[in-house]
Specification:
The two termini are about 25 Å apart. With about 300 residues, the chain is of the alpha+beta class. The strands form five sheets. The protein has a four-stranded antiparallel beta sheet. The chain has helices spanning about 50-70, 80-95, 165-180, 190-200; strands spanning about 5, 30, 110-115, 120, 135-145, 150-155, 205, 210-215, 220-225, 245, 250, 255-260, 265-270, 275, 280-285, 290.
């Protein structure tokens, strides 16, 4: 689950319309019931994980990969997004003996996000939303086990999809990995953002600015903020023990977004398709480790 950039009015921070990219831009949590009188707390500091803590996060990431494997044969035309939620929650709780970390987070009532077609992120499962042939859907899941949280999302193609939709999905996946491949001690957050942005824009797509990746550990959202745009060499330098998500949202059309009245669902302003992929990544002594790597990616 990503963060949002819209700042809390009572903190006097700039809005998304006026903000320019900065190495440590004040992005904020996404969620419903976000009001001037009840702003979420600031992002916590960057917490470097010990080898023992990384073992626990690795275990949570492996379990989360199993959830996606269970959904792979389930997500198809005719299934509702609520059925996806219910199956994943049952698998997490009953089979894996873990906790769906998104449920109850900032008041979110479900165990995952289901974002279909022009929904950018934070789509809410719905018993009346039936998946149709030709659609694309992002399923974003978090899982807590042993006190540590893993966060990942995956795109699914519903039956046969258009060549245009396939190209967007594949380009977004490649952009994710372009960002991941920048991760190493001494690199910067700007290196990650630049790699993602350059790949997406070279393909003619736009990068959503309002939402970003985040540090993760015992809390869903820790420091640092991981933007999907940037300049090489700018921003915080990476150190071994840092763990964060990279989760680019790439639009087929313009980068503009708007949030629906439910306070969660974010869509493209021009109703163009949007795609997102996400992994939880650790900085190692000599590079990176993807803690949520799925079997088909090995």
């Amino acid at each position: 689950m990503c963060l949002w950039e819209r700042a809390c009015p009572r903190r006097g921070l700039p809005s998304s319309r006026t903000m320019r990219w900065q190495p440590h831009a004040p992005w904020r949590y996404a969620g419903a019931n976000y009001s001037m009188s009840n702003c979420p707390p600031p992002m916590s500091q960057v917490i470097l994980k010990t080898p023992a803590q990384l073992d626990l996060m690795r275990r949570a990431g492996q379990l989360l990969a199993q959830v996606f494997a269970d959904l792979d044969g389930f997500i198809r035309p005719g299934v509702t997004t609520m059925q996806i939620n219910d199956r994943a929650e049952a698998f997490i709780v009953d089979t894996l003996k873990a906790r769906p970390a998104s449920k109850g987070q900032y008041g979110f009532p479900y165990s995952l996000n289901t974002s279909v077609d022009h929904v950018v992120c934070h789509g809410m499962p719905n018993a009346d939303e039936v998946l149709k042939e030709g659609s694309i859907i992002n399923v974003d899941i978090t899982l807590e086990q042993g006190g540590y949280i893993a966060d990942s999302s995956k795109m699914y193609s519903i039956g046969h999809i258009s060549d245009e939709a396939r190209r967007l999905v594949d380009t977004t996946y490649d952009a994710l990995w372009k960002g991941i491949e920048q991760v190493r001690p001494g690199a910067t957050l700007g290196d990650i953002g630049h790699a993602v942005q350059a790949h997406a824009e070279a393909a003619g797509y736009s990068v959503v600015r309002e939402y970003c990746g985040h540090g993760i550990g015992q809390q869903m959202h820790e420091g640092p903020e991981v933007l999907h745009i940037g300049q090489r060499g700018m921003g915080m330098k990476l150190k071994p023990g840092m763990v964060f998500t990279i989760e680019p949202m790439i639009n087929q059309g313009g980068r503009g977004t708007r949030t629906l009245k439910d306070g969660w669902t974010v869509i493209t302003r021009d109703h163009s398709l949007s795609a997102q992929w996400e992994h939880t990544v650790a900085v190692t002594e000599d590079g990176f480790e993807v803690l949520t790597l799925r079997e088909e990616e090995r």
